[in-house]
């Protein structure tokens, strides 16, 4: 059974801090890894990673994938209160279709 | 370009009633996915459909649940004879093809009383 594990489950920081969120996976026939941000509503797409070692960046957020060690990290620099959310890691795998297996999420709280 | 639309946003049903959840994918997207998020749990895959075809329903409970994506109109997730354990947020996502990111709708929060 495909498995995605995120750590930490929750994190509280102050504005301006840098955070690193972790995601490890064990799946059959890996295709891609995706990061989403969820703020009590629809998960919002952040990144899709398919190749090892290539960093994807969007503003203060960046992510990288290690397919040998089977993990990914999401970095957020200079955090703001608006970054407070649940960050979800999902892996697309398998031989039929595009089902995503999600981790439990990391609840990030950024205090002023 | 409107995002993924779901309705209703909130649905209350008594035990034993039927629930019908609708999802209109983003324009140009022909792949639809349904996920369920139980209270205090992560998102779980239920079913993957393309127009008029169910591609992968391995996450669907064997009884009472069904899904369709007709040639015209939205995708429908149907839950018959609902029970309290069906109370959850049901999210729909769409993509233009496989190997593309999935975009999520706002979800339907189903409460069974």
Structural write-up:
The complex is a heterodimer of chains A (112) and B (113). With 112 residues, chain A is mostly beta strands. In chain A, 0% of the residues lie in helices and 59% in strands. Chain A is built from no helices and eleven strands. Chain A has strands at residues 3-7, 10-14, 19-26, 30-38, 44-49, 56-58, 61-66, 71-76, 85-93, 100-102, 106-111. In chain A, strands 2, 4, 5, 9, 10 and 11 form a six-stranded mixed beta sheet that branches. Chain A starts with a strand and ends with a strand. The model of chain A has no long low-confidence stretch (mean pLDDT 93). Chain B is mainly β. Chain B has strands spanning 5-7, 10-13, 19-24, 31-37, 43-50, 53-56, 65-68, 75-79, 88-95, 103-104, 108-112. In chain B, the strands form two sheets. In chain B, strands 2, 4, 5, 6, 9, 10 and 11 form a seven-stranded mixed beta sheet that branches. Chain B has a four-stranded antiparallel beta sheet with strand order 1-3-8-7, with no helix packed on it. In chain B, a hairpin with a 7-residue loop joins strand 9 and strand 10 (103-104). Chain B is globular and about 35 Å long. The model of chain B has no long low-confidence stretch (mean pLDDT 93). Classes of the chains: A mainly beta (112), B mainly beta (113).
Summarize the structure.
The complex is a heterodimer of chains A (112) and B (113). Chain A has 112 residues and is mainly β.
Number of strands of chain A: 11
Count of DSSP strands of chain B: 11
Distance from N terminus to C terminus of chain A (CA atoms, Å) equals 41 Å
The biggest beta sheet of chain B is recorded as: 7 strands, mixed
Rg calculated over all Cα atoms of chain B: 13 Å
Into which percentage range does the β-strand content of chain B fall? Answer: over 45%
Give the proportion of residues in helices of chain A. under 10%
Mean pLDDT of chain A: 93
Order of helices and strands of chain B: EEEEEEEEEEE
